[in-house]
Amino acid sequence: MGDDTIDGPADGWGSSSDPMLMPKSIVDYLAKHKWGMAHLRWHTQRNWDLMPPSALDYAKKHSWTRADLQEGQKGNGIEFLAWVPDSETHFKGFVPE
Questions:
Q1: In angstroms, rounded to a whole number, what is the distance separating the alpha carbons of residues 4 and 12?
Q2: Would you list the domain boundaries of the chain?
Q3: For a Cys-Cys bond, which of 23, 50, 69, 71 suits 46, CB 3.0-4.6 Å?
Q4: From the centroid of its chain, how far is CA 75?
Q5: CA 30 – CA 62 distance, rounded (Å)
Q6: What's the DSSP call for residue 48?
Q7: Closest to 55 measured CA to CA, from 29, 79, 28, 20
Q8: What do you get for the CA distance between the two ends of the chain, in Å?
Q9: What is the mean pLDDT of each run of 10 residues along the chain (97 residues)?
Q10: CB atoms within 10 A of CB 44
């Protein structure tokens, strides 16, 4: 699959300065599998120390807490793959071989 279908101009990726913007294909995929809130929770808990107070207030209101392993720390990628059910099937086509 070429870059244009994953994170290229066809998705509008890179067309905004918004650091939270995700490619349309990823947003559509999350919606299809109803992972939106789980995705938000995952990243919020693993970026806890970087979150602004308003984001932490939202997280705490939903009883979310800081994850011991934060994004960027050794082992976080393996933890993510373990969390995603059948990750090999779900991510086929998103990750270059």
A1: 10
A2: 1-32, 37-97
A3: 71
A4: 16
A5: 20
A6: G
A7: 20
A8: 10
A9: 44 55 76 81 90 93 93 80 60 52
A10: 20
Closest residue by Cα to residue 45 from 83, 13, 17, 11: 83
CA distances from 88 to 31, 52, 61 (A): 19, 33, 33
The type of residue at 43 is: H
Single-letter amino acid, residue 37: M
How many whole angstroms separate alpha carbon 86 and alpha carbon 89? 6
Question: Would you state the pLDDT for residue 53?
Answer: 93
Cα 85 to Cα 89: distance, rounded to the nearest angstrom = 9
Range 31-40, long-range pairs (CB < 8 A, 24+ positions):
33/90
Q: Which two tokens stand for residue 18?
A: 């918004």
